[in-house]
# Entry
Amino acid sequence: MSQVPECVVNEQREDDVSTAAAAPSTLLFAIATGVIIINLFAPQTLVGIVGPSLGFSESGAGLVAMASLLGYAVGLFFLVPLADLLENRQLVLRMLLSALVMALAAAFAPTGWSLLIFLFLLGAACSAIQILVPIAAAMAPPEHRGRVIGNVMSGVMVGILVSRPLASLIADFWGWRSFYAISAATLALLAAVLALRLPERRPSASTSYGALIGSLFQLLRDEPVLRLRAFTAALMMASFSLFWTSVALRLVQPPFSLGQSGIALFALVGAGGAAATSPFGRMGDRGWTRMATLISRVIMLAALALAAWVGGIRSGDPLTLLILLGVSAVMLDVGVTGDQTLGRRAVNLLNPEARGRINGLFVGIFFLGGALGSALAGTVWDFGGWVAVCAAAAGFGVIALITGFVARN
# Structure
């Protein structure tokens, strides 16, 4: 009877032990990214009460929702690259402390324009998320990296999807300023925990900051996987933003006729899609990246077809139709999170010395797609209502699907 060499058995045991030991750290990273990203999307549900309280017009109030996302994009391009230059643990902690200060400042902002400045800086500091993700990836062995990234990304997606209802509920009870006060307290607790648990990670790059920023364009030029994955992720995020920016407009109409609390609860439904991150990460680890990518995009297109059909019905059993629309929301989030998880895995396997810059570019570009989707939502809604929104969102998905077929990646 053949026996497995003891050295192989010991290596397997060590791998199992390291994987088990990494589980609490992965959970911590997932919680941390989820807590931080709430600050970026919560303002979208607070615009209606923040704007009037600070004297903004309806058009000006939209700046409240844009400020933190714009700051986040700037942070991705100009702060996250520092992860390839400075020790990562200290960098993350300094950015979290900055976010804490800005959240407190937002809670006491005396004017609308001061609030916009504080939210912009808060968003920039929240780009620490994209330094935590590569730290988590670096801590995992290559064969488990997709799984770890998927698990951490589940925290990001849950944070995105619960941010709107959470902020709405807090504001209903204690006012919108209380949301930022609670956020500051949460960030303080998170910073204290990460100060104890984060490992040191010193990058090997030795260059100037100016050269580091200039290298972003070189990375885009030299890394075709990064270009492809960032482009298709931007398309998927545009579709995601179109749906979630417009769905509240449909839910207040018959046959749903939901109020703000009902819309907040509906937003929680999509959080179920975050569970898809780990399975898609595992498929990537097994070498099924292309197939899993195509599956994620087909799921998203099927979700939008279902949403268009359900949303086009003006009479019928509201509960049944609401459940079906909720199913479409979960399917949409499964498709988008699956695609992003596979994209993150792919770019995190590229040049290790440029991992921080690569992550910043990837996420920054797909957030530009999200901004485009949000910007188009009002125009598309005015043009053709809910069905037009779903058609436009599906258009982005079709382009991503075709691009994947052509590029065979």
About this structure: Residues 75 and 124 are 4 Å apart (CA to CA). Confidence is low (pLDDT under 50) at residues 1-22.
